[in-house]
Amino acid sequence: MSAAPRPVRIVLADDHETVRQGLRALLDVADGFEVVAEVGDSGSAVASVQTLTPDVLLLDLSMPGEGGLAAVRQLAKEGSKTAIVVLTRHRDPSFAHEALRAGASGYILKQSSFGEVQNAIARALRGEVYVDPLLASDGSTSADQVLKVSRREDEVLRRAALGQRNKEIAAGLQIAVKTVEVHKAQGMRKLGLQDRSALVRYATLQGWLQEL
């Protein structure tokens, strides 16, 4: 008689206790999962992965500490073998782009069914990248559309997020105003940002407003 397969060991990272409790309840009922830790901030998420080496980290982006993206980047830099699936309310495609670029294996919306969470976990364990179909249905992003913003586009967007006008950005970077306009348009298109408010939300998540 063959032994039962080892359950998938999961760390839940979300600053809302009710969300963690709901996820744990769903995972406990489903076959093949074991929640080994629940944490409410990004630093604890990183520490839990380092000490427990779970198979999967289910991670929210907006948490106390440096935030979910910082946790993804740190774990990727350390060469962690834990697959990271982001579970978030952020529907802006720019967040999905950045999470996947940082090293996440999946990006799922909290509005989606638990079946999507299970699907993302399964794909992540196979070494695949998965994006919530709700985003793909918007025509906004997919796993094979993680576009890279150039260094100059990044510089322009950071300054624009701080409220600098095109002329100020041009003077600061010593480039033409028309060039600023082109870089801004291309950068926002790549990130799926529709207007300045979306850019500011993205910049806040990235920590740009604290860096400059």
Topology:
Layout: E1 8-13, H1 17-29, E2 33-39, H2 42-52, E3 56-59, H3 68-77, E4 83-88, H4 93-102, E5 106-109, H5 114-125, E6 130-131, H6 133-137, H7 151-161, H8 166-173, H9 177-191, H10 196-206, H11 208-211
Parallel strand pairs: 1-2, 1-3, 3-4, 4-5, 5-6
Helix pairs in contact: 2-3, 7-9, 7-10, 8-9
Helix fraction, binned, reads 40-55%
CATH evolutionary superfamily of the largest domain: Response regulator
Structure classification:
alpha/beta
Dominant shape: elongated
Please report the number of helical segments.
11
- In round numbers, the mean pLDDT is 86
Distance between the termini: 62 Å
3D architecture notes:
With 212 residues, this protein is α/β, with parallel strands linked by helices. Helix 8 (166-173) packs across helix 9 (177-191). The chain folds into two domains: 8-137, Rossmann fold; 151-211, Orthogonal Bundle (Arc Repressor Mutant, subunit A), CATH 1.10.10.10. The radius of gyration is 19 Å and the shape is elongated. A six-stranded parallel beta sheet has the order 2-1-3-4-5-6, sandwiched between helices. Strand 4 (83-88), helix 4 and strand 5 form a beta-alpha-beta unit. The chain is built from eleven helices and six strands. The chain is 52% helix and 14% strand.
